[in-house]
C-alpha cells in the first residue's frame, strides 16, 4: 500500500515539473538571443513593419526576448533598430505557426 502512495506522489511531482516547464499561455525567456531562428523572427518583424509603415528601419540586434506557447508560438522581442540618424528600441510581437509557414506581426511599438 505504501508503494502505491509513493508511486502516486512521484507521479504528481513529475507532472507538476512538466507543467511548469512548458506552461501554455505563460511567457518564457529566450536564452540564446543570437539563435538564427530568433534573428529570423526579428528580421521579419522589422521588414514587415517597414512594409506597413513606409519606414526604413534596420535591425541592429535583439536585446531581449520571450516566447509564449499558443496555437503556435508568440515571440515578444525587444529590438534595437536604426533608421535615419536615430537608434531606438522597439517591442515586436510575432505570432508563428511553423508547420503552416505562417507568421504575423501582431504589434511593433517604440519603447521609451
From TrEMBL:
Residues 22-111 form the Cystatin domain. This is Cystatin domain-containing protein. CDD domains: CY. Keywords: Protease inhibitor, Signal, Thiol protease inhibitor. PANTHER family: CYSTEINE PROTEINASE INHIBITOR 5. Gene3D superfamilies: 3.10.450.10. Pfam families: SQAPI. SUPFAM superfamilies: Cystatin/monellin. Residues 1-20 form the signal peptide. One of its GO terms (molecular function) is cysteine-type endopeptidase inhibitor activity.
Amino acid at each position: 500500500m505504501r508503494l502505491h502512495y509513493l508511486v502516486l506522489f512521484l507521479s504528481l511531482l513529475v507532472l507538476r515539473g512538466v507543467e511548469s516547464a512548458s506552461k501554455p499561455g505563460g511567457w518564457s525567456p529566450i536564452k540564446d538571443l543570437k539563435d538564427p531562428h530568433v534573428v529570423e523572427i526579428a528580421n521579419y518583424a522589422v521588414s514587415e513593419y517597414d512594409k506597413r509603415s513606409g519606414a526604413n528601419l534596420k535591425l541592429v540586434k535583439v536585446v531581449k526576448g520571450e516566447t509564449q506557447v499558443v496555437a503556435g508560438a508568440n515571440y515578444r522581442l525587444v529590438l534595437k533598430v536604426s533608421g535615419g540618424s536615430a537608434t531606438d528600441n522597439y517591442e515586436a510581437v510575432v505570432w508563428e505557426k511553423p508547420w503552416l509557414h505562417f507568421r504575423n506581426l501582431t504589434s511593433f511599438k517604440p519603447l521609451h
